[in-house]
Design goal:
By secondary structure, the protein is mainly alpha-helical. Helices cover 87% and strands 0% of the residues. It contains 1 helix and no strands.
């Protein structure tokens, strides 16, 4: 019936929205962890590489 078809379309739409939300969350998580990794590398560089070459640039 018409009503049945409508509820199916609604379910399909909801599923699509969930999937898109999931993809966005994955993207955000990857982006965030990438930034965190970059920050850790920078901190590592500040602590180890910079003082070795430029003691005046040491940032605790």
């Amino acid at each position: 019936s018409e009503q049945h078809r409508c509820s199916n379309e609604k379910k399909e739409f909801q599923r699509r929205v969930y999937l898109r939300g999931d993809a966005f969350i994955n993207l955000y998580t990857n982006f965030y962890s990438g930034i965190m990794t970059g920050l850790q590398l920078l901190r590592h560089f500040q602590r180890i590489a910079l003082p070795a070459y430029h003691p005046t640039f040491f940032i605790p």
